[in-house]
Design a protein that fits this description.
heterodimer; A: about 120 residues; mainly beta; B: about 180 residues; 5-stranded antiparallel beta sheet; 12 strands; elongated
Chain lengths: ~120, ~180
Amino acid sequence: MLILIRLGWYTKIGRQVTAAWILGMSSWSSGPSGNALVSGLPFNAMTGSNFNMSPVIGYSSRFNTDNAPRGGFLESGASVVRLLRSNDTSSRNNVNTNVSCSSLGGDEYLYGQITYFTA
Amino acid sequence: MSDIKIQPSATGSATVTLTAPATGTARTVTLPDSTDTLAINSDVTNKLPLAGGTLTGDVSLVKASGNSQILVEASGTDAYATVRVKNDAKDYSMQIRSDQSDAWTIRDETAGANRLLISSTGDVTLGTGDLIFGTAGKGIVLGSTTNTDANTLDDYEEGTWTPTLSGTSGGPSGVNFD
């Protein structure tokens, strides 16, 4: 039985938005390309040079070992979170490398939350 | 027995003047008339109640200079002082209510509910409803005594959104969610 796990909640107080999501996929017919994003946030982020805010990745599953997201940043003026992983297989290394879509299988789970500012 | 008394004070005279206009209807004062009203001219619809009774026309209080006021005072202990307005559908009162710690109250008499209260210390309470701004983008100024944008809470929203795991060069298709 197919159970939908694709939910997001948000609260906006003034210009501050807190958004949480749970995303669990079983398969896809065609995967995304480029660097992995969580898209569809309810409001665009504030626009500004070097303006980035980071999510908390609370749970991930079924990502390849060296491609699991550990953080990310909110793209300026957009409603997407760019996912980042450690720059090698050690979790103690810097989290500054894009999660590649080419390593995704379409059956990943990803739960997270981000607080950010709108314009 | 009937008396008419015109009584001067120690320092001033007391005068009743009834002047008939040069033209038009003669003026008559009857105090009181048969319905406990003061008839101020011969028009029976233009009467000022002395106690109880109903004014059937509009009333204007016009003062040529200085501040003007209508005072409604209930001097008895814990008595309500009330100004009441009503039409064919609703009946509201503006009161000082002793059962609300003498808060100034707007009360829906039709529903029997207090709608707005301002306490004697200045606190404001909405009795039953939400606070709704008639113009979008208006808000509540917090932490400031002047209307500054940085101190104005002008938006609140909660809801759901639909997340997607996508890519910078193209999104997925045919996704099934487990």
